[in-house]
Amino acid sequence: MELYSGHINKLIDELAALPGIGNKSAQRLAFYIIGMSDARVKQLAGSILRAKENVHCCKICQNLTDTEICPICSDAKRDKTTIMVVENPRDLAAYEKTGRYEGLYHVLHGAISPMLGIGPDDIRLKELMARLSSEDIREVILATNSSLEGETTAMYISKLIKPTGIRVTRIASGVPVGGDLEYIDEVTLLRALEGRTEL
Ligand code: ZN
């Protein structure tokens, strides 16, 4: 016999499929949602739908945004000659939070992983190379994670960019190996940025 009704089980399954949410948390959230007022549940469901409908990738840097060009790319005060390459929007947010990086970004939405079958065409690399040939870029800072995939991606990109003559640097390995950039404190991030080395 099923412990809960089909609808509750379905909700628990959907929540448990989200990253970082185990079965216990999914149950807790499901019961919490059932206990919420109709108005709040509608608001939550509406926020999810509206975010999904309205958020897309910035035409230039591929970061998630509500507008065609994101606020960073359209900010006249940013240094338009430097691009920092990150794996995902959360890494970009981590560097933005330091408030000390003034250049532009490029979000790859992933990293090259032969083991997982993720190749260069599966991340937003073509878009980066297109920017390098159309914008006046003097330095590309490779800030992918220091995991195997992040290092592989950095090496691959640096080999692609080298022939263009554009300066390519890699953030210092003060960032713990395998560490997700978003969990690293701002001081460590700044040290990694300032200690970047030529590739
Ligand atoms: Zn942008």
How are the SSEs placed, and which strands pair?
Layout: H1 6-16, H2 23-35, H3 38-54, E1 56-57, E2 64-65, E3 79-86, H4 89-98, E4 103-107, H5 125-134, E5 139-142, H6 148-161, E6 167-170, H7 186-194, E7 197-198
Parallel strand pairs: 3-4, 3-5, 5-6
Antiparallel strand pairs: 1-2, 6-7
Helix pairs in contact: 1-2, 4-7
- What are the bound molecules? zinc ion
Rg from alpha-carbon coordinates: 20 Å
Query: Which fold name fills CATH's third level, the topology of the largest domain?
Result: Dna Topoisomerase Vi A Subunit, Chain: A, domain 2
Percent of residues in helices comes to 40-55%
Tell the overall outline: elongated
The computed structural class is: alpha/beta
Number of helices: 7
Strand sequence of the main sheet, in spatial order?
Answer: 4-3-5-6-7
Low-confidence stretches: none
Architecture of the largest domain in CATH?
A: 3-Layer(aba) Sandwich
Number of DSSP strand runs: 7
CATH hierarchy, class of the largest domain: Alpha Beta
Q: What percentage of amino acids are in beta strands? A: 5-15%
Helix/strand order, N-terminal first: HHHEEEHEHEHEHE
Number of domains: 2
Assembly level: single chain
* Average pLDDT number: 91
**Major β-sheet, in short?**
5 strands, mixed
Distance linking N and C termini: 61 Å
